[in-house]
Amino acid sequence: VQLQASGGGLVQAGGSLKLSCEASGRTIGSYGWFRQAGGKEREFVAASSWRGDKKRYADSVKGRFTIGRNNIDNTLHLQMNFLKPEDTAVYYCAANSEPLYTGGWTNERQISYWGQGTLVTVSS
After folding, report:
1. Is the pLDDT of residue 95 over 90?
2. Could you tell me what percentage of the chain is helix, strand and coil, using 3-state DSSP and rounding each to the nearest 5?
3. What SS3 state is found at 86?
4. Any idea what DSSP says for residue 97?
């Protein structure tokens, strides 16, 4: 699976940003996003089954971020609203061949495919 992320940038606190990730290659069972702030470990943000019937969010982004994909071209998305300075990080799209299962997508060691990161900076 090849993943190509885009859409990062600079935004003011309270603003919105939409990240995209072009996916190609093998069949994807689940996809999601992680992020890594300076000096910290990469952390889970959101994940979804390929069909979209199961979704999971980190508590820190629940109610503000929405994960989804375009059914026509299979572009993966992360819509981020009400952004906060603590959301500043490099965001990575990711995918697995396996479906979204209980206990999965809790840490980066469970992920098989990664895209390159895209930087999101939220100013206060």
Report:
1. yes
2. 5, 50, 45
3. helix
4. S
